[in-house]
Design a protein that fits this description.
Oligomer: single chain
Largest sheet: 2 strands, antiparallel
Strand content: 5-15%
Number of helices: 20
Number of strands: 8
Helix content: 25-40%
Radius of gyration: 24 Å
Length: 524
């Protein structure tokens, strides 16, 4: 399979055109003297932000997570009667795993340049205020990634070049992120309805939801300030209480998040939107199925990263066998079997060939020799026999919009539930927040009590542990998923128990197991 190229367009439906967004270094070559200049410069900022969301950053985010196994297809060892994985699906090296550091600071430099060049604009103009809020939001998010990936890093908040700036403390970095998000909250539009682009550009609710996530991580490792759990719960509650006003809510059907029909939706708090042409992305018809044939009405094309083809064995087997498992993984396979023809030796013209029969398999558990794939990494298309026969995929998906969720409203619900428990405030509202997620996972009414709910009587620790696993299942294979939870809860050392031995060997470069953070690249 040809390797997919970088995500070349992020948040592509801004007021500026796609062509404008892709111009080289637009910010550094422009003055900002009008609101239109500002919007064009902001398009350049989002272009820089796109560089953060390529294959290399995802390699860093997914390293050593128990939901992923970075291995190729399994093979059967006849001599020993067992299955083994054959090797890396992708073989990362230090350059790849540490490559997010530079683009993050490049994006930050872009935000600082915008602040400098827009300082003479009328900051009382609502349009300018909204644009400034977006810049603060993006800078905060970049530092949030930096501190969680690389630990203590320098804080750069101006355009002056100074290579002697020391690393800031963890607390200083989190205070800086909080400050930027508080400014964003004061400047951004009030809601999705007032956002520059509905469901795409951030608004006040987006910034509050991100700040709740910041407080949740602030409470955990490495700062371990438990008072921040109450802050996280309080901020998340503000978002939940005003969800209808902000334009947030759970999608009623989990499938609608990834079926290609509802990319712009109420559950997205902040996401990457990429529209692409088939040739540019290098997508082909290498669907993840084996057997004689594949049901031509059930074709999936991978439009994400090749390592999404490997699922952690223990993680999959522990995943509840519910509707969410159907949506998350390719656990349903339809094979087409072709029975042998009945040959009429006397009159060959009367030879009868029975029609192909579909055979459906569902995988509740997997082993080392089972190829399993994340359905979230694929898009499903209904393909006619004629299109399939001609291979005319251009007509089918030449122009298509793909969403990669960074934060969803379900993050806010689960963050609220966990933070309430860890701050000693466990109550019915926390149970209801997580139970809405559990009900949707089992395809029952989200607002009505069900047999799938977490039941009263759990201790705060038991409840919090349940929420952490709910986060693992809900957000697996997503950038803001399992790795950051493992770090903040100091669970990385337990990965040896969470992963199967057949998930593959450790990466050549791993985080410092004493600090859990990646080293700053030697080239910096």
């Amino acid at each position: 399979m040809r390797q997919p190229l970088l995500i070349f367009l992020i948040l592509s439906f801004f007021a500026t055109s796609c062509d404008d967004m892709m111009k080289e270094d637009p910010v550094s070559k422009l003055s900002i003297s009008t609101p239109d200049d500002f919007e064009f410069a902001l398009a350049g900022l989002y272009h820089q932000f796109a560089e953060l969301n390529n294959r290399d950053l995802c390699m860093t985010l997914l390293v050593n997570r128990d939901d992923f196994a970075f291995t190729n297809s399994g093979s059967f060892d006849a001599a020993h009667g067992n299955c083994t994985k054959s090797g890396y699906a992708q073989t990362p090296d230090e350059t790849m795993l540490l490559s997010a550091y530079g683009p993050l600071y490049k994006c930050i430099a872009c935000t600082n340049d915008i602040f400098e060049k827009s300082k003479d604009l009328n900051h009382q103009d609502p349009r300018i205020r909204h644009l400034l809020g977006e810049v603060y939001f993006v800078r905060a998010y970049c530092y949030f990634w930096l501190v969680r990936l690389y630990g203590q890093v320098p804080i750069i908040d101006n355009v002056d070049v100074d290579y002697s700036i020391p690393k800031a403390s963890f607390t200083e970095i989190y205070i800086f992120i909080e400050s930027d998000l508080q400014r964003a909250i004061s400047l951004l539009p009030n809601s999705n309805d007032e956002a520059r682009k509905k469901y795409v550009t951030p608004h006040r609710g987006s910034a509050k939801a991100l700040l709740a996530e910041v407080y949740l991580n602030w409470a955990g490792y490495p700062i371990k300030n438990p008072s921040m759990y109450a802050q996280s719960a309080s901020m998340a509650k503000e978002v939940i209480d005003s969800a209808a006003y902000f334009g947030f809510g759970l999608m009623p059907d989990l499938a609608d998040l990834w079926n290609g029909k509802h990319e712009l939706n109420q559950e997205s708090v902040f996401s990457i939107y990429a529209s692409f042409a088939l040739d540019f992305w290098g997508i082909n018809g290498d669907e993840p199925f084996v057997g004689n044939d594949v049901d031509p009405t059930d074709i999936f094309f991978m439009i994400s990263y090749n390592f999404c083809k490997s699922v952690g064995i223990k993680f999959y087997n522990a995943f509840p066998n519910n509707y969410r498992k159907d949506i998350t993984f390719m656990r349903r396979r339809v094979f087409i079997s072709k029975p042998p023809c009945v040959v009429d030796s006397i009159n060959p013209a009367n030879t009868y060939c029975p029609p192909k029969e579909p055979i459906e398999y569902r995988y509740n558990t997997i082993s080392a020799c089972t190829d399993m794939y994340f359905r979230k990494c694929y898009e499903q298309f209904n393909v006619s026999d004629s299109v399939l026969a001609k291979g005319n995929f251009h007509d089918m998906i030449n122009e298509h919009l793909k969403v990669i969720y960074l934060f969803r409203y379900s993050h806010t619900l689960l963050t609220y539930a966990e933070a309430k428990a860890r701050s000693g405030q466990l109550d019915g509202s926390a149970f209801e927040a997580v139970n809405q997620i559990r009900r949707r996972a089992n395809r029952v009414d989200q607002q009505s009590p069900s047999k799938f709910d977490l039941q009263a009587g759990l201790t705060p620790q038991q409840f919090a542990d349940s929420v952490v696993w709910e986060r693992a299942w809900e957000f697996c294979a997503e950038p803001e998923g399992r790795w950051f939870d493992l770090v903040r809860l100091e669970m990385v050392a337990n990965l040896k128990n969470l992963k199967d031995k057949n998930d593959g060997p450790a990466f050549p470069l791993t985080p410092n197991m004493e600090t859990y953070f990646f080293p700053i690249p030697k080239t910096d």
